[in-house]
Design goal:
The chain has 516 residues and is of the alpha/beta class. It is built from eleven helices and 23 strands. It has a ten-stranded mixed sheet. It is globular, with a radius of gyration of 23 Å. It binds 2-acetamido-2-deoxy-beta-D-glucopyranose (7 copies).
Length: 516
């Protein structure tokens, strides 16, 4: 009865979801708001399944709206008669890539910050990211051993040196005390199976030519097989601890160790050598193990490396294609690299996927590390996700799930920002605009959704609405829009359905309706 009334009388109204808990907003001067979670309160949002003829929209804006939920009914607008200076047409019959998922990284830093909170706040944080009351993340990236977001550099089996057979491979206290408990809590809270992707930054120094965690390095030839076994052992140990590993990458940002670009844990790889290692060592080791279905992603470096990395790899070692499931791309040079690079690869190799495996704001030397309440950073996230997805990327994994107020801990002082900032002394955590930017996609675009064709017609006077749309396994259409300018009406047309929706000024909007 209630729903019926809503359908009859509510053409476009707020239904301040009876299940939702609004943001406890703290205004940051000169910026947007952060939503404060403390021991007694944390905001929540529940997805409202759309009824026939209805659409549900969620809005997050610079002015402070956070997942503001409203429902409306489809209503014909006459062409040209209404203020539809922007019209978006959707074609669910023209389908593109299948979605794998969205998530963040369980680094040592993230897990240590999480664990520094009182129990109830640990639960709120997990719920905020994974549950039906939060972002419903379904992917996680986990460093194999340490990375810069650790309190010290380390790897497994550091001793004894030259231990080809890895006789002393055990997980670290960081795994047992921090990372695995966080991952398992997220798995329990999640609404879908969580796909965990493991990545090595640096193996133990004795496997490397420079016998160090950082600096110019290569893998020593006599340890090619050992480094492959190192990955398999990690998979075995995590599986035994109750965390199935879905995929691995072939080393984080391999060009860092070639050009000494980073002060933190790296391993340099020439493409030719990595191809050889994949074909002779890593590929056969994984495929011939109990964990033969673990997906192997290569690349795992900046977008601009992709065509070169992939083309040379295939020219030198075409057999690598048999082992590689896809390519990982990082976010940090996206603004200076055309996204067409991405779709070019998926068009030439339609059986391979591209996954965005790392992104964070505040990483450039001239940037403020933690910029509390930054709307600009939410915009950076949502526009990158929209651009990536429109170029056939199958998922987007954020970097540290939470950091402290300094943007750490990080042993190499390579601090950055995070969607959640933990203030343990104040017994609270702060959900930044970036958190909601992630959620506008992760919560509403489940695994196995398909991107669909979208066309925008607009008068040349107005800025483009950045948008991407999906057909979900729930038989709904999900349209995500970023409006950079002032508030405006946008015409939406999908088959016989048509309506005008209002986009708030400087806002991110997710719209969902039934597909038939
Ligand atoms: C949603 O936004 C409208 C105005 O845009 C406001 O009236 C309403 O209170 C908001 N709802 C919530 C739950 O914040
Ligand atoms: C927790 O947050 C709620 C909502 O903002 C507030 O009413 C309450 O006073 C806060 N509690 C503490 C201990 O700060
Ligand atoms: C095995 O590794 C531990 C650290 O995890 C180290 O303390 C111990 O000395 C190592 N054992 C040998 C035989 O090297
Ligand atoms: C480990 O191997 C390297 C390279 O062969 C050698 O220089 C070094 O002495 C070895 N270390 C030990 C303790 O055997
Ligand atoms: C490892 O390299 C760093 C610089 O990248 C240097 O400061 C440090 O002394 C090196 N450590 C060893 C054991 O060589
Ligand atoms: C796979 O394992 C079997 C038995 O352990 C071994 O005989 C075979 O050579 C392995 N194949 C590869 C490709 O490593
Ligand atoms: C964190 O909490 C401390 C102690 O209450 C407070 O002084 C500080 O301003 C807080 N930091 C942030 C970024 O909110």
């Amino acid at each position: 009865m209630k729903l019926f009334l809503v359908l009859l009388f509510c053409v476009h109204c707020t239904i301040a979801g009876e299940y939702d808990k609004p943001c406890a907003a703290r205004q940051i001067p000169g910026r947007s708001v952060v939503c404060v979670c403390n021991e007694t309160y944390c905001d929540e949002v529940v997805r409202q399944p759309p009824a026939p003829g209805q659409y549900v929209i969620y809005t997050t804006s610079e002015s402070g709206l956070r997942f503001n939920k409203t429902v409306g009914l489809f209503q014909k607008y006459r062409k040209g008669s209404l203020k539809c200076s922007t019209c978006i047409g959707l074609d669910p019959m023209t389908r593109f890539q299948r979605v794998e998922g969205f998530g963040g990284a369980v680094t040592d830093a993230a897990a240590i910050n999480w664990k520094s909170l009182p129990d109830v706040l640990q639960k709120y944080l997990v719920k905020s990211y994974a549950s039906e009351y939060g972002l419903e993340y379904n992917m996680l990236r986990v460093p194999i051993g340490g990375c810069d977001f650790s309190t010290h550099p380390y790897a497994y089996n550091e001793l004894p040196v030259n231990d080809t057979r890895l006789t002393n491979f055990t997980l670290a206290p960081e795994d047992n005390i921090y990372k695995i408990p966080l991952i398992k809590s997220l798995m329990t809270a999640a609404t879908a199976p969580i796909h965990v992707v493991g990545t090595t930054w640096s193996p133990p120094p004795w496997m490397k030519t420079n016998n160090n965690f950082s600096g110019f390095s290569r893998l020593r030839r006599e340890f090619y097989q050992t480094y492959a076994d190192y990955h398999l052992k990690f998979i075995e140990k995590y599986e035994a601890a109750g965390v199935p590993v879905w995929g691995i990458t072939t080393t984080n940002e391999p060009i860092n160790g070639v050009f000494n670009l980073a002060k933190f844990n790296t391993l340099g790889w020439d493409i030719e050598n990595m191809g050889e290692w994949i074909v002779n060592n890593l590929g056969p080791t994984i495929r011939n193990s109990t964990y033969k279905d673990v997906k192997i992603f290569t690349g795992d470096d900046q977008r601009f490396t992709l065509p070169f990395w992939f083309n040379v790899l295939l020219r030198e070692h075409p057999k690598a294609l048999e082992y590689i499931y896809g390519i990982g791309v990082h976010f940090y040079a996206d603004r200076i690299t055309p996204a067409s690079i991405l779709s070019a690869v998926t068009i030439s190799h339609p059986d391979k996927v591209i996954l965005a495996t790392e992104a964070s704001e505040g990483s450039y030397p001239w940037q403020e590390k933690v910029e509390l309440g930054s709307w600009t950073r939410a915009v950076s996230y949502i526009t990158d996700i929209i651009e990536d997805m429109n170029h056939n990327v199958v998922g987007w994994i954020d970097w540290n799930m939470c950091l402290n107020t300094e943007g750490g801990p990080n042993w190499a002082r390579n601090f950055v920002d995070s969607p959640i900032i933990v203030n343990a002394t104040n017994k609270e955590f702060l959900k930044q605009p970036m958190f909601y930017a992630m959620g506008h996609v992760s919560k509403f675009v489940p695994r196995d959704s398909r991107r669909i064709k979208l066309t925008e017609h607009k008068s040349f006077l107005v800025s483009s609405v950045k948008s991407v749309a999906f057909l979900t396994p729930r038989s709904t259409i999900v349209l995500i829009m970023y409006n950079k300018g002032s508030a405006r009406n946008v015409g939406i047309k999908c088959g016989k359905k048509q309506t005008l929706v209002r986009l708030e000024a400087k806002s991110i909007t997710t719209m969902e309706f039934l597909s038939d």
